[in-house]
Inverse folding.
C-alpha cells in the first residue's frame, strides 16, 4: 500500500509545502519516525529518486517524486534484523537504479551492499560483502562504467591499516568481477587511517577524495590529518596520491571534487584552524592539476558569515559559472550542532550570498537539475520527528516556482508502480575477497575465450562451452584430429555460450578444438572420442 495518506498528512502539517506557497519546498516524513536523507539523483523522466534511512524501524527508505517533489511511490528495504543504510545511488543504463551502502545483520555483522532495482523499482539482485575478523567495511560511492559494469568505492578498516581504500567492480548480473586496493602502506609507508569518500570520472580518469593521516616530513612519530586525493588511470592503476598541504600544515578533509578546466581541479571540504576561543572548522577549497601538483588553496573565513561563526563545512558543491559555485553547507556560531544551509562562493573563498535553514542538521546534498536550478535535500527536525526537507533554488538562491508542465513518469516500467517492501534476506554473500582477480588479471582474461568440453570423453555428442564471447566478434570453432586435419568448423556468434556437436561418426581418438576471433586463436581444449 502506498504511503500517500501519510504524505498528504505531511503536506497539511508542514506549511512550507510546494502546494501551500506555490514555491518549490516540501517535506517528506512519516508520523513518529526519524528519517534521514542520504542521496538524491534526477532520473530520465525528470523525476527525483531519494535514498534515505528510517532509524526507528531500521530500514532504508527510497522515494520517487515528480519534478515538484510530490511523492509518486516509495520502497522500504530491509528490516530491524537486516538493516541497509544507503550512501549513494546512480541511474542504471536501463532506467533502473543502483544503490550502495552499509549492511548490518542483527547488529553483529557489517559490510558493504549493492542493490540493483529495475525501472519499476523492483529488486533484480543484491550482493553484500560480509566482513570477517578485524574487517569493518562500508561502500561509499558508485559509478557506472562505459561497459555497464558497476564501480564501487569501498572502505575496509583493518587494525594494521595496510590496505583500506578499495575499488570493487560488479557486473550487471551482480557478480563481483575484480577488486583492487589504493593508497596502501606498501606503496606509501607514511600513510595511516586512509579513507575514500567520493568517486569521480574526469577525462577518462578516476579520482577519489577523502582524508588520511600523513607522517610529518622528517618525523615519523607525528602524523597529521590531511585532505586526500587519489588519481586512478583508465586501466584502474593508481597514478598518484596527494596528501594535500603536508608542507603547509593544512589539517582537514576533502569531501568532493569539481573539474575547473581540462587540467585543473578543485576539491572542497573543511579544515581545522585556531580561532579566538578554540579550534574553528572552516570551509576549505584546494586546487590541484592533473599531474598531482598542488596549485593553491583558500579558506572561507568564518567572519564572512553573520552571526560570528565557529563551524563552516562545505558538504557538497556544484558549479554555477567558471568561477562561482553553490554549496550545501553546515555553518553557525556553535562549535558543533549548527544548522545546514547554502551559500555562493568563489575560488578565493569569497561568499556572496548565504541562507541558513532553521532546525536542519546532518547530511546536506545538492544537485544541478535539468531545468538549470539546484535541488537541495537535508534532514529537518519537526517536533520529535526527523523528516526529509527538499527545496529547489535558482542561481541567486531564490526559491523557484513549481513546474506546471505535464510529464509522464516511469515510462520505462510497463505497469503502475506500487509502494512496498524489498527483502534483502536472499542477497548473495561474499565473505572472502582474497581470491578475486585484480583489474589487470580480469581484463587480460577477457581477451581470451576459455573453452570447456563435456562430456569428455564423449561417445555420441559433445558440448563445447564458451566464456567471454560477448566481448568478441567474427568467431569460428574448429576441431582438429591428431594429424592436424579440420574435422569440423562452425560460426560462433557474439554472446553464444555453447554449441553441441554429433561426434558419433568421428574416429576414436584425441581431438583439439580451438576458437578463433578475427583469425587469432583465443582458446583451445583437448577432447577424446570413444567408440
Amino acid at each position: 500500500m502506498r504511503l500517500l495518506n501519510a504524505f498528504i498528512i505531511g503536506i497539511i502539517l508542514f506549511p512550507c509545502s510546494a502546494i501551500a506557497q506555490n514555491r518549490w519546498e516540501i517535506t517528506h516524513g512519516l508520523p513518529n519516525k526519524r528519517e534521514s536523507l542520504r542521496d538524491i539523483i534526477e532520473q530520465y523522466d525528470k523525476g527525483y529518486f531519494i535514498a534515505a534511512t528510517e532509524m526507528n524501524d531500521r530500514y532504508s527508505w527510497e522515494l520517487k517524486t515528480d519534478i515538484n517533489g510530490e511523492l509518486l511511490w516509495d520502497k522500504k528495504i530491509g528490516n530491524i534484523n537486516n538493516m541497509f543504510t544507503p550512501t549513494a545511488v546512480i541511474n542504471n543504463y536501463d532506467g533502473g537504479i543502483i544503490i550502495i551502502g552499509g549492511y548490518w545483520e542483527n547488529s553483529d555483522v557489517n559490510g558493504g551492499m549493492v542493490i540493483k532495482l529495475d525501472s519499476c523499482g523492483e529488486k533484480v539482485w543484491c550482493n553484500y560483502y560480509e566482513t570477517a575478523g578485524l574487517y569493518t567495511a562500508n561502500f561509499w560511492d558508485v559509478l557506472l562504467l562505459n561497459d555497464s559494469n558497476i564501480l564501487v568505492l569501498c572502505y575496509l578498516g583493518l587494525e594494521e591499516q595496510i590496505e583500506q581504500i578499495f575499488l570493487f567492480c560488479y557486473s550487471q548480473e551482480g557478480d563481483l568481477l575484480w577488486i583492487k586496493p589504493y593508497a596502501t602502506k606498501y606503496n606509501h609507508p607514511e600513510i595511516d587511517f586512509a579513507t575514500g569518500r567520493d568517486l569521480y570520472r574526469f577525462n577518462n580518469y578516476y579520482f577519489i577524495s577523502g582524508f588520511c593521516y600523513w607522517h610529518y616530513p622528517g618525523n615519523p612519530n607525528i602524523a597529521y590529518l590531511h585532505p586526500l586525493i587519489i588519481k586512478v588511470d583508465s586501466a584502474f592503476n593508481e597514478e598518484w596520491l596527494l596528501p594535500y598541504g603536508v608542507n603547509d600544515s593544512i589539517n582537514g578533509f576533502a569531501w568532493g571534487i569539481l573539474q575547473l578546466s581540462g587540467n585543473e581541479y578543485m576539491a572542497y571540504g573543511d579544515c581545522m584552524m585556531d580561532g579566538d576561543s578554540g579550534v574553528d572548522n572552516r570551509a576549505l577549497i584546494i586546487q590541484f592539476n592533473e599531474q598531482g601538483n598542488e596549485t593553491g588553496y583558500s579558506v572561507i573565513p568564518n567572519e564572512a558569515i553573520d552571526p560570528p561563526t565557529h563551524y563552516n563545512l562545505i558538504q557538497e558543491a556544484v558549479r554555477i559559472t567558471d568561477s562561482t559555485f553553490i554549496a550545501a553547507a553546515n555553518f553557525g556560531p556553535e562549535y558543533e550542532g549548527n544548522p545546514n544551509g547554502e551559500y555562493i562562493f568563489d575560488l578565493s573563498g569569497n561568499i556572496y550570498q548565504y541562507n541558513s535553514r532553521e532546525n536542519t542538521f546532518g547530511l546536506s546534498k545538492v544537485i544541478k537539475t535539468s531545468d538549470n536550478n539546484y535541488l537541495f535535500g537535508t534532514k529537518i527536525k519537526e517536533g520529535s520527528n526527523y523528516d526529509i526537507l527538499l527545496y529547489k533554488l535558482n542561481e541567486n538562491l531564490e526559491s523557484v516556482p513549481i513546474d506546471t508542465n505535464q510529464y509522464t513518469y516511469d515510462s520505462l516500467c510497463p505497469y503502475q508502480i506500487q509502494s512496498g517492501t524489498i527483502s534483502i534476506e536472499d542477497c548473495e554473500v561474499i565473505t572472502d575477497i582474497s581470491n578475486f582477480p585484480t583489474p589487470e588479471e580480469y581484463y587480460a582474461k577477457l581477451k581470451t575465450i576459455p573453452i570447456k568440453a563435456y562430456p569428455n570423453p564423449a561417445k555420441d555428442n559433445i558440448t563445447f562451452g564458451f566464456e567471454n564471447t560477448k566481448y568478441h566478434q567474427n568467431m569460428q570453432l574448429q576441431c582438429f584430429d591428431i594429424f592436424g586435419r579440420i574435422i569440423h568448423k562452425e560460426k560462433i556468434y557474439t554472446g553464444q555460450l555453447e554449441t553441441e556437436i554429433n561426434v558419433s561418426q568421428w574416429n576414436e581418438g584425441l581431438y583439439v578444438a580451438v576458437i578463433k576471433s578475427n583469425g587469432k586463436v583465443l582458446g583451445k581444449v583437448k577432447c577424446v572420442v570413444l567408440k
Q: What stands out?
A: The radius of gyration is 27 Å.
